[in-house]
Amino acid sequence: MSLDAVLARIDETLPDALDRLFGLLRIPSISTDPAFGGDCARAADWLVADLRDLGFEAAARPTAGHPMVVAHGGEGGPHLLFYGHYDVQPVDPLNLWHRDPFDPVIEDTAKGKVIRARGASDDKGQLMTFIEACRAWKAVHGTLPCRLTMLLEGEEESGSPSLVPFLKGNAGELSADLALICDTGLFDSARPAITTMLRGLAKVELTLRAASRDLHSGMYGGLARNPIHVLTRILGRLHDDEGRVQVPGFYDDVDELPEAIRAQWQSLAFDHQSFLGDVGLSLPAGEAGRTPLEMIWSRPTAEVNGIWGGYTGAGFKTVLPAEAHAKVSFRLVSRQDPDKVLTAFRGWIEAQLPGDCELIWTEPEGSPASVMEIANPAFEAARIALGDEWGRPAAFVGAGGSIPIAGYFKSILGMDAMLVGFGKDDDQIHSPNEKYDLASFHHGIRSWARILDRIAS
Ligand SMILES: [Zn+2]
Fold first, then answer.
1. What is the DSSP string of 223-254?
2. Per the confidence metrics, is the pTM higher than 0.85?
3. Among residues 207, 237, 208, 204, which one has the least CA distance to residue 355?
4. What are 36-58's pLDDT values in tens digits?
5. Rounded to the nearest whole angstrom, what is the distance from the C-alpha of residue 401 to the centroid of ligand 1?
6. What is the pLDDT of residues 273-284, one digit of tens each?
7. Distance in angstroms (rounded) separating the CA atoms of residues 301 and 134
8. Which DSSP string do the residues of 367-414 spell out, in sequence order?
9. Ligand 1 mean position, distance from CA 423 (Å)
């Protein structure tokens, strides 16, 4: 009954919620450009004032970069930490925008009404869905739904340099039972999703050195070693004919997908033809015997991201180069350890090197995958709540890319994160003419109200 009242309140006050969002969108909080430092501080202050209005104890806390908004409110029930970010991407190239990126407007499009502005989707529109749900809840119940901590970052679009030190420095204050992150998307235009698996990353730049200097192929060719040949031969063996990575032990810590998740993914009827078709491809190129969704969400990869050496300028130079270079990265899943993978990769290369070649290993780094503990009943509760709102069952999905914050919540604060978002692939985040569907904003607010109703009360 009271959930109905909260939902009705959300519907009635949607114009006010939009006004507030527009106020935040008008602040050009571009975190990467120092010229907008004052605007980032202004956006943080705007959120602090809004959260205080809602009864939170809120402050913009200084960091080495832009401030971190932290707020505490409510009591009882589970302690939830909500994360979003108030900074946005630069707007260049400005001439490709159809209007001022910081003058938000509702536009009618062929696919329905959209909110058009930088940050409309990523992430101001998304973070406000949660704040507006709290506001409607407070208006109906007189209190917030449970004990809530808000963490709103101002450097997400510029590499989050202050995030780890801030989490470490305030771990006691920020640790909660569960983190909620609203910075992801729907599975497709009508099916909600909860991201529960994020792949990790390991990367390294490597150089093979052969001769002590570049050589003339007329004089040395045929006798001297060409490191480009050595490097390409080794990297050519990185996968076997079935697409399996050949580094020893690579799959040791890779878990098979739980049956329940496999069944859910099957029901998603992912259209890999159009996914690949959009980028001019047609044939899945991953591991034999794996579905396309497994390939991008739950299987590890090895990719040569760049390879260079020798003469690549205009004309021709018949050189035997002294060095060959490559950048190689791995997407990691399950319990794969970045250091262990890179060490095994290095050993695998060295075992194949001729005696007069040297391997130079530069800047290895990585972060493990995040796999959420979906046995936590909050995940199933949220899945049902999302299904109620969108009229289609929500799915637990994976994400091929890394979302470092979820990993930090686990490794630094010891809590799982539930990633629920309402963005769409065509939101043009990071590009000109960013938009957020008005329906995403409205259903997003209602979704959080339903989720909070199920897990907090
Ligand atoms: Zn974002």
1. TS--HHHHHHHHHHTSB-TTS-B-STTTTTTP
2. yes
3. 208
4. 999 999 999 999 999 999 999 99
5. 13
6. 999 998 999 999
7. 40
8. E--EE--TTSHHHHHHHHHHHHHHSS--EEEEESS--HHHHHHHHHH-
9. 10
Compute, in angstroms, the gap from residue 254 CA to the centroid of ligand 1. 28
Reading the block at residue 318, the tokens are 């018949």
Residue 429 CA, ligand 1 centroid: distance in Å? 8
How does residue 404 score in pLDDT terms, banded at 50, 70 and 90?
confident
Distance CA 384, CA 379 (A): 9
Query: 10 Å Cβ neighbour count for 153?
Result: 27
Ligand 1 centroid, distance to 122 Cα (angstroms): 5
**C-alpha of residue 266 to centroid of ligand 1, in Å:** 28
pLDDT score, position 276:
95
Task: Give the distance (Å) from ligand 1 centre to CA of residue 5.
Answer: 31
Mean pLDDT of 64-92: 97
What would the two tokens of residue 284 be?
Answer: 């899945």
Helix (H, G, I), strand (E, B) or coil at 143: coil
